Fold this protein.
Amino acid sequence: MTAIALPRLAVARPKPNKWLVTVSITFGTLMGAIDSSIVAVALPHMMGTLGATVQEITWISTGYIIANVVVMPLTAFLGRLFGQKRVYMACLMLFLVGSILCGMARSLTSLLVYRALQGLGAGALQPTEQAILRQTFSAKEAGMAMALFAMAVMLGPAIGPTLGGYIVDNYSWPWIFFINVPVGILGLMMVAAFVHEDEEIVAKNRELATAQRKNVDWWGIGLMVVGLCTLQYVLEEGETDDWFNSKLIVVMFVTSIVVIAAFVIRELTCEVPAVNIRLFKDPVFLSGTMISSLMFALLMATMFLLPLFMQTLLGFTATDAGFALMPRVFVMMAAMPIVGRIYNIVSPRLVIGIGVVLVGFGAYEMSHFTLDTSQHGVIMALITQGVGFACLFVPLTTVSLSSIPRHLMADATGLNSLFRQVGGSIGLAVAATMLSRFNATARTALISHVTGTDPTAMMRLRQMTGALTARGLDALGARETALRGIDIAVSRQATLISFERVFLLAGVLFFLVLPLLAFLKAPKTPETAAAGGPPAPKPDMHVEI
């Protein structure tokens, strides 16, 4: 009896469950974002365990960030060669392996290597999630997709120090790494089960991958790695090494400028570039990315300055400072879905403009902090900024990608993530430098008034000396103690003035982005014209339930 071959019937996949996709890929992004800041509070404990100096231990954070920024722009390149889903899962696995090894490390050298390994894994997670979400949600839901992405990216650095402080206080520092493992395994299982690449995108990537394999841009990759590593080193270590007074910083800075310039020329002239920087010819993508970079610079600067201000001047404990920052996080979580829902109703430029004003006003409020500012006063300023950041991040990440072709979405998100990360590093470097400079200037100005010819200063000295003498100190000891007390008071006032000036400068600089809003008018498609909003890519990812 002859067997009859029946044609294979194509089985249509069920309609994608976008929420399962979102939850699946958010685990890795959130962990990577948290790990960029969670280590900071554990550094003193690591120094004791590993016998490291302050200068040496800071490389645990620096190495992670450098490894992170190197991978981000290569996300699309790797995705075309191996598949977007495979790259995400491989990087998440690498991140988990690095986390386990970091927790088991018992020497500084091994911890630095494993931390860099962890950073390499985390580098591709943010841009890949952003691309997948834009390919999963419909054009009308693009704002909501970016709201979900924003919650993961912006919440990570915000809750990292608080979570790290709790773990270190109640357990030990290796657990800040071990805690990633169960969450990461759950994320891997969900991505494997629910996320599937669209056949159209896979076919297009295979076509581009063929050209890439024939003309691998090794020169472009090499120049990019050297340029980004040297630039990030300058940003991370510049303040510690007194910037351009250090020959090493000068060499690194010049090298970064020359190599990055060579990289740009290479990518613009190469037939098949590893990093598609030609996307910046789109004024919408360029302006959106630049504003996002400035936003992250201010966000990271305030996240660095506020805990320092609260602990050094207001006398807050680390836990109190962490809890004071949490309301901004909660406000952002509440506001981002709302902003995502109104994205297709209200002009993105109007929402972004409101965000700029709110963030700038929040910085202005912080510039009026005093030594008597309460926790409530700090929280109110942060709430204003929280709403502002929500109004900025959601429409920025949505409209900046609105005119990017579907098969180039991973290229755009990789560049977008890179510039956000570099912007954050620049914000930290500038904030730390300006704080130091303003402090020195303010102290010099204040000391010029605390002299033997100033009646107010001399009256204060006599009052303090008399009070100390009444408590039993001899005249000489009382005078010396009073002088030290006045010096401490001058230092506190100088530090306060420096914080106020940095906060005010950040607010003023942020208003300078308003002219860039003129370039953020995205073109409309028939689908989105009816909805009143800018376009977004059609769904490219499918889900099996």
About this structure: The chain is about 75% helix and 0% strand. Residues 1-12, 525-545 have pLDDT under 50 and may be disordered. The first strand starts at residue 196 and ends at 197.
